[in-house]
Specification:
The structure holds 2 protein chains of 2 kinds. Chain A is α/β, with parallel strands linked by helices. Chain A has 2 domains: 214 residues, Rossmann fold, CATH 3.40.50; 71 residues, Alpha-Beta Plaits (2-Layer Sandwich). Chain A is built from 12 helices and 14 strands. In chain A, a hairpin with a 2-residue loop joins β9 and β10. Chain A is elongated. Chain B contains 14 helices and no strands. The radius of gyration of chain B is 20 Å and the shape is globular.
Chain lengths: 337, 255
């Protein structure tokens, strides 16, 4: 549905994106990840035909975004980053205008607008001036204008930013419900959102794509082993040695002392759970087992590792160990979003 | 071409924001004041000419009321029209709405025409409301409807040119004030450019005088429709609109 090949965009001497290639299959929801300034919005602006690329090609819904821009624009719904809306218009008439510009016949328009407002939960503000709405409502009006024509492809630049937790959940389930009939590409800063909503992910950093694929595959590529986080208060060398000797354990790393006890990350083969063995070991040796849990091998860690370490999937083994501090920082960050 | 939805949207924005109301009010107020003072002066002159038949010979409503009124109105327009057009593209660019507008399935040309026609409609409304003055005159005196009609046609054509220049300036910047200053500067330049023809003389004098916005209006005010004048305003408008289209395109490349 979306095919991008060697897309490059220069702003004068500045390279916003270079040689970006990816494709999105029909009906998929793909998350577009990257730190600020990585080139997410630039890519989305090119896909939405707002501006042409310096070189390379992009096809959306089978049409070239540059040469057949009008055909592409008939088939997309776009939500730009800052949700630009006409502050002096009321919600209802605004959506009616969008539907009309998008070529929806007069007879159908009322129904479509009502449906879009209903799905984005803005029916109760339809007579309000857009400029007087809260950020969350504006965001949803922006989303409503993107889906009002029921387009094949949705390009959403940070669709859940500025919403409260409940609205985020609602919008996520709305986006999820679009899968199948619609192809969605959405950018976001909230990593768990990608795991929750998207089937695939594209990670972009400094203008180039560094990883892409289904989330599970990516995580596996980056973390080929299963990890267990253990905290044991006991004689340090003996504990380390004991853990190393356990059947199925590939490697043990010291994660530094915490609360006066040694902490380790135990790596084992994927699919093998060594927690039972660790528990047995601690019980036998009468070590005080304070913590025993699976370390998350989540998209966050992949992302942080890629962006911080600037690795690409091409490397077969990650060079740097993910710092547990970073891994733990993510959920906290999510809560503040 | 989806001009109609864009046009409706622009009209809605003109009238939901105070812009259209303020412009209409100020314009009618000033035009009304000019009409009042010119008409009052005409009344005075008429009374005096009752005692002096020689003077009465040259006295008629077209020359003494309508022509000065038209020429005053054209000066008000020079000042007000930049304000009618300044927001059309600059505001969309500043608020970022241009990004959505230009990714809807509508050609740049249709966007431009929709906006231009909305500006033209607002202008036509301004003019239409001044029709009250000649009607008032017609109640007291005999009005020559021919020159009146050509005068209004001239104002309409000249205003259409002003609007085209204004919309071009608006497409150049995201700052409305900058847009209106550029418009005013360009219009004023083309307004006074003919004045130098007086001492320049020769071919250059004729060229400059032909370029002047106001020179071409005079014949309309006298009741003459000269195709040269019509074409001048027409060409001027087309060139300005064409440049706007180019400017929109260039802006896309710059992102």
């Amino acid at each position: 549905m979306i095919e991008v090949e060697k897309l490059t965009k220069n702003y004068g001497p500045v390279n916003a994106i270079r040689d970006v290639s990816f494709s999105v299959a029909p009906g998929d929801i793909v998350g577009f990840l990257g730190p600020n300034g990585a080139g997410k919005s630039t890519t989305m602006r090119i896909l939405s035909c707002f501006m042409p690329a310096s070189s390379g090609s992009a096809r959306v819904a089978g049409y070239d975004v540059f040469r057949e821009s009008l055909e592409v624009r008939k088939r997309i719904g776009y939500l730009p980053e800052n949700v630009p809306l006409y502050a002096d218009m009321r919600v209802g008439p605004y959506l009616d205008f969008v539907a009309e510009v998008k070529g929806i016949a007069r007879t159908e328009r009322k129904g479509r607008v009502a449906d879009a407002m209903d799905r984005c939960l803005i029916t109760d503000v339809q007579n309000r001036l857009i400029g007087k709405l809260s950020k969350g409502y504006r965001q949803r009006v922006g989303l409503a204008q993107a889906i009002v024509s029921d387009p094949h492809v949705l390009i959403l630049d940070e669709p859940t930013i500025g919403l409260d937790p409940q609205q985020i959940t609602e919008i996520r389930s709305l986006i999820k419900s679009l899968a199948g009939d619609h192809t969605v590409i959405l950018s976001t800063h909230i990593l768990p959102e990608v795991s929750m909503v998207c089937s695939g992910v594209i990670i972009i950093n400094k203008g180039a794509i560094v990883a892409q694929g289904p989330i599970d595959t990516l995580v596996e590529q980056f973390f080929p082993t299963a990890r267990v986080h253990v905290q044991i208060a006991g004689p340090y060398p003996a504990v380390l040695e004991g853990l190393r000797r356990l059947a199925g354990v590939l490697d043990v790393h010291d994660a530094g002392p915490q609360d006066g006890a040694a902490t380790f990350v135990v790596e084992s083969d994927r699919g093998r759970d060594v927690r039972g063995e660790i528990f047995q070991l601690a019980a036998q040796q009468k070590w005080e087992l304070r913590e025993l849990r699976r370390a998350g091998m989540t998209l966050e860690e992949v992302f942080i590792r890629i962006v911080a370490g600037e690795e690409t999937v091409a490397d077969d083994r990650p060079a740097a160990e993910p710092t547990p501090a970073a891994a733990e920082a993510m959920p906290a960050e999510e809560a503040t979003e | 071409m989806k001009i109609w939805p864009i046009y409706k949207k622009e009209m809605r924005l003109y009238f939901t924001s105070p812009i259209a109301w303020v412009i209409l009010t100020i314009f009618l107020f000033i035009a009304g004041y000019f009409f009042y003072s010119i008409f009052a002066f005409f009344t005075l002159a008429s009374m005096q000419s009752a005692m002096n038949p020689a003077m009465a010979r040259d006295l008629n409503v077209t020359d003494s009321v309508l022509r000065p009124l038209f020429s005053n109105v054209s000066v008000i327009l020079l000042l007000l029209m930049p304000l009618v057009t300044m927001r059309l593209f600059a505001e969309e660019r500043r608020s970022g709405t241009i990004e959505l507008l230009l990714t809807y399935p509508v050609r740049d040309g249709a966007v431009l025409l929709g906006k231009y026609l909305a500006g033209l409609t607002l202008y036509a409304m301004m003019l239409a409301m001044t029709l009250f003055y000649p009607l008032l005159v017609a109640y007291f005196a005999r009005v020559e409807w021919g020159p009146l009609a050509t005068g209004y046609l001239g104002l309409l054509l000249m205003g259409a040119t002003f609007l085209a220049v204004g919309i071009f300036a608006s497409s150049l910047t995201e700052n409305q004030i900058v847009a209106s200053i550029i418009t005013f500067g360009v219009l004023l330049m083309f307004w006074v450019i003919g004045w130098s023809s007086d001492y320049l003389g020769g071919t250059w004098g004729r060229v400059l005088s032909h370029l002047s916005l106001i020179e071409h209006f005079d014949s309309f005010a006298k009741g003459v429709i000269d195709t040269r004048d019509v074409l001048y305003y027409f060409d001027f408008t087309i060139v300005a609109l064409f440049l706007t289209l180019r400017s929109l395109e260039a802006r896309r490349w710059k992102g």
